[in-house]
Write a structure and sequence with these properties.
This protein is of the alpha/beta class. Helix content is 31%, strand content 17%. The protein has 10 helices and 7 strands. Helix 5 packs parallel to helix 6. It is globular and about 65 Å long. Bound molecules: 7-methyl-guanosine-5'-triphosphate (MGP) and S-adenosyl-L-homocysteine (SAH). The site of 7-methyl-guanosine-5'-triphosphate has 16 residues, from helix 4 and strand 7. 7-methyl-guanosine-5'-triphosphate binds next to helix 4 and strand 7.
C-alpha cells in the first residue's frame, strides 16, 4: 500500500512568507529619539510608554525628566474629567503635555506653562499628535513669575517631586515639593482661583495636603482620589474648591 499523500502538500515549490520589516518614517524617527533619550534611569518607564501616551508611536517627544514625571494618560483623562466644560484651565507645570492634552479635550482653553523651553516645544509637538494644539496657549516661563498676570477657572499643579527618589520617604511632606513648598504654591494658585487640583506622590502626608483647604475662609471643599494604572498606585490627586467643579 502506498502512503497516502497529504492533500495540502503540492508539487509546486512553496513560497516562504517573508516578514515585512518596513517601518514608517515616524517609527524610524521615534527609534532614533529613543536612542538619545531612554537612559538606563528611565528604561522602566519606557516599558510603560503606551500607558503614558496611547499614541506614543506617532512621534511623542520625551526627555529624561519627563519619562518619570509625565502623568499617565488614563490618570490625566480622569483629572480632566472633573473639569469638563470648564473655561480656562491653567496647567502651571505642564512638562511635555500629559495633562494639558487631556484638559484640552475637555475644556475650552488651556494655558500650559513650563520653565524649560525644550519641554514646551515637546508639549507642542505632542499636542499636535492629539490634534489639540489650537486649544492650548503655550508659555515658556516661571509659574511664580507669571502667576500674578494669569486669569483662569482652574489651576492644575503637578510640580517636580524631586525625582523618582520621592518614594524613599515614609511620608512625603509638602516642603519637599520643588521649586517651592506646597503651601507657597497653593497660596499663589489660590490668588488666581479657588478651584485647584494638585497631583501629589502616593506617600504624601494627606493631613498636611488636605489641610491646605483651611488656608481659605471658609475652608475649601476637598476631594481625594488615589490614581491607579493596571492596579498599581501612581499618585494622589487632591481637588479643592467650589463643590467640586466646574
Ligand atoms: P514612579 O513611582 O517613579 O513610577 O512614578 P512607578 O512606575 O510607579 O514605579 P514604582 O517602582 O514605584 O512602581 C509614578 C508616577 O508618579 C509617574 O508616572 C508620574 O505620573 C508621577 N511622578 C513621578 N515623579 C518623580 C514625578 C514628579 O517629579 N513630578 C510629577 N508631577 N509627577 C511625578
Ligand atoms: N504634568 C506634566 C509633568 C510635570 S513635571 C506632564 O504630564 O507632562 C514638572 C514640570 O515642572 C517639569 O517639566 C519642569 O520643567 C517644570 N517646572 C519646574 N519649575 C518650574 C517653574 N518654576 N515654573 C514652571 N514650570 C516649572
Amino acid at each position: 500500500m502506498s502512503p497516502t499523500k497529504d492533500p495540502s502538500s503540492s508539487q509546486a515549490p512553496t513560497k516562504k512568507k517573508v516578514k515585512s520589516k518596513t517601518r514608517t518614517r515616524a517609527q524610524l524617527a521615534q527609534k532614533k529619539k529613543e536612542k538619545e533619550n531612554v537612559t538606563p534611569l528611565v528604561k522602566k518607564y519606557w516599558f510603560q510608554r503606551y500607558d503614558l501616551f496611547s499614541r506614543y508611536d506617532e512621534g511623542i517627544d520625551m526627555d529624561e525628566e519627563s519619562w518619570f514625571s509625565v502623568t499617565p494618560e488614563e490618570i490625566a483623562a480622569q483629572q480632566a474629567s472633573w473639569c469638563a466644560g470648564a473655561g480656562v484651565v491653567i496647567d502651571a507645570f505642564a512638562g511635555v503635555g500629559g495633562n494639558a492634552i487631556q484638559f484640552a479635550q475637555m475644556c475650552q482653553r488651556v494655558i500650559a506653562i513650563d520653565i524649560d523651553p525644550k519641554k514646551v516645544a515637546m508639549a507642542y509637538n505632542n499636542a499636535k499628535i492629539y490634534g489639540v494644539e489650537h486649544h492650548i496657549d503655550f508659555i515658556v516661563g516661571d509659574f511664580f513669575q507669571v502667576a500674578p498676570f494669569l486669569k483662569g477657572d482652574v489651576v492644575f499643579l503637578s510640580p517636580p517631586w524631586g525625582g523618582p527618589s520621592y518614594k524613599a520617604k515614609e511620608s512625603f511632606t509638602l516642603d519637599l515639593l520643588k521649586p517651592k513648598d506646597g503651601h507657597s504654591l497653593f497660596q499663589i494658585a489660590r490668588a488666581i482661583t479657588p478651584k485647584i487640583i494638585m497631583y501629589l506622590p502616593r506617600n504624601v502626608d494627606l493631613v498636611q495636603a488636605t489641610g491646605l483647604s483651611c488656608l481659605s475662609s471658609p475652608p475649601l471643599d476637598v476631594k481625594i482620589e488615589e490614581n491607579f494604572v493596571r492596579g498599581n498606585s501612581k499618585g494622589i490627586t487632591i481637588y479643592f474648591g467650589d463643590n467640586i467643579f466646574p
